[in-house]
Specification:
Helix content is about 70%, strand content about 0%. It is elongated and about 55 Å long. It contains 15 helices and no strands. Helix 11 (about 160-170) packs parallel to helix 14 (about 205-220). By secondary structure, the protein is mainly alpha-helical.
Length: about 260
């Protein structure tokens, strides 16, 4: 691992400090980083190797690549960097580079939420799902208006993106400051609409959306208007009926939690 991380550090410097028109040398460094960062992203998945890797000092090179993403020519490299940071952010290690740079990572990931590439949006949303477990990171997400972006992304056309966003909103909705922003950007209505749109065919996503809705209502219950409450009651009855009907028809056993 030390050898790989040494290569990462060296070639990151080469890419980020390359002069205009560097040519073949820059191409070789970018090509190597594409493969190397992809490998590190796979290693990070391993429960035995991931925690140690997340605390390695040279992970700072991944953060540097994320922060300098606008100057990186290779879209594949940027995507691999986001994927690697997503996998590394899964480990809740309260020390090391990932922990000390969690605010910068959140700020660097924010622009990825508005990319045309669905995979980049998905990886960024997954990373925020991990990072939003931490209060200080939720504060950074609020400052960079990521909480507002998550409400907008509920309308995304990609089901995996919506599922990942739902997980982020579970955490943000339990934070009073983020919850206030979500309410004021019609997050309750967006969550209800998304639950109805997704339906009972996919049990996991509506369940997560319902969890986010519960957290949101519990956190800012004093702000709920009578019309919203009426809509929530109607939605809960509808979801309960759908879950019950699905179970009677031999549907997904995960719906038992909804019935």
């Amino acid at each position: 691992v030390d050898l790989l991380m040494g290569l990462l550090q060296r070639h990151t410097q080469a890419v980020l400090t390359a002069a205009p028109g560097a040519g073949r040398e820059l191409d070789l460094s970018e090509d190597l980083l594409v493969k190397l960062v992809r490998l590190l992203a796979h290693i990070a998945i391993s429960p035995s190797a991931g925690p140690g890797l997340s605390q390695h000092p040279s992970v700072a090179s991944l953060v540097m690549l994320l922060e300098g993403a606008e100057g990186v020519r290779s879209e594949e490299l940027v995507l691999n960097v986001v994927s690697a940071l997503t996998n590394l952010s899964y480990y809740d290690a309260r020390e090391g580079v990932m922990w000390s740079n969690r605010g910068q990572i959140a700020e660097g990931l924010a622009p990825m939420l508005f990319q045309d590439n669905d995979e980049a949006v998905l990886e960024a949303a997954r990373a925020f799902g991990n990072l939003s477990r931490d209060e200080a990171t939720r504060s950074a997400m609020h400052t960079t208006r990521v909480d507002e972006a998550m409400v907008l992304l509920l309308d995304h056309t990609s089901p995996p993106v919506v599922a990942a966003v739902a997980g982020v909103l579970v955490n943000l909705s339990a934070d009073r400051r983020c919850a206030g922003t979500i309410v004021h950007t019609d997050g309750i209505g967006a969550l209800m609409d998304t639950i109805e749109r997704v339906g009972a065919a996919d049990a996991a996503t509506p369940t997560t959306l319902g969890h986010a809705l519960y957290n949101l209502c519990a956190t800012v219950e004093w702000e709920l208007e009578s019309g919203v409450v009426t809509g929530l009651l109607a939605l809960s009855e509808e979801v309960g009926e759908q879950a019950g009907a699905a179970l009677e028809g031999g549907g997904d056993e995960r719906l038992e939690g909804l019935a």
